Amino acid sequence: MTAPRVSVVMVSWYTGPSLSESVAAVLAAPGIAEFVLVNHGNPSEVSAELRALAEAHDKLVLIETNANLGFARGCNIGADRATGDYLFFLNPDAIPQPGTTRRLVATGEALDRPFLVGALIAGEDGVEQRGARRGELNHWSAFVGFLGLQRFKPVFGEAFRDIHREHEPLPETAEAVPVTSGAAMLMRRDDFNALGGFDERYFLHVEDIDLCRRVREAGGEVMFEPRARVLHYGSTSEASRLRVEWSKARGLVHYFWKFYPRPLGRLTTILLTPLIVGGVMARAVLLSLFRR
């Protein structure tokens, strides 16, 4: 039986110094047959280096869009060009550790289709980062999260469980979750295409939550695989924190508008929007001040 071919799809826009390390790691990683890199824009010297690498490595396919078209659209562009049986979406500031790709594929092969498998994402300190295993995003979980009501879980129970699960004990094997992270996720290419790919109305953030939901609504499974590990530097892009968080806020509002179309859902989204925008942007300001 022929081993399945895996295509890594990566989207880069002024990623910073971690891009070179990430590209080198993917090119050197066994189990990756093709590497599709969508260059939305990088400094001229970085773009020149990428072109030279594409000429030197047959498995590196460089697509230059000459504009920042957003993460979702960039991933779709890369997926359209990819030829592998699997698509491994990987952030340009992420470094897959040895065996990661094979583990993701092996876990996926045992699941009902369509499936999506996400890796454990850790920082340089080895600590699991936020986002790789999350609960269901709905109006209530967003309300709990933005107001910090998860602190009341010991008193009121599961209804106040934190949507982010990185503080919970790490499972030893793959675990079903409602949401995993687009920073390092794998699924079959034909399933991705059948679901319509990423929703391009998201510019940056929330598109992964949307895709995970559509996988589950199609009768498939979303899994978090702690044995597949990815080093993630995070926040290396030159994009301003305010711009990134504004994209996240818009994405959250679009998500609720899309998946809760009934009158009560629409009304709840309208009422929740000021909290979403205010909470996300306040966090952006605090993070910016903290870094300074």
Automatic annotation (TrEMBL):
Sequence ranges assigned to domain Glycosyltransferase 2-like in this UniProt record: 7-193
Record key words, sorted: Glycosyltransferase, Membrane, Transferase, Transmembrane, Transmembrane helix
InterPro entries cross-referenced by the UniProt entry: Glyco_trans_2-like (IPR001173), Nucleotide-diphossugar_trans (IPR029044)
Matches recorded under CDD domains: GT_2_like_c
Keyword set includes Oxidoreductase: no
Enzyme class: transferase
Keyword Protease: no
Pfam families to which the protein is assigned, alphabetical: Glycos_transf_2
Gene3D superfamilies: Spore Coat Polysaccharide Biosynthesis Protein SpsA, Chain A (3.90.550.10)
EC number assigned by the record: 2.4.-.-
GO molecular function: glycosyltransferase activity
Transmembrane segments: 270-290
PANTHER family: RHAMNOSYLTRANSFERASE WBBL
UniProt-recorded name of the protein: Glycosyltransferase family 2 protein
Organism per entry: Hyphobacterium marinum
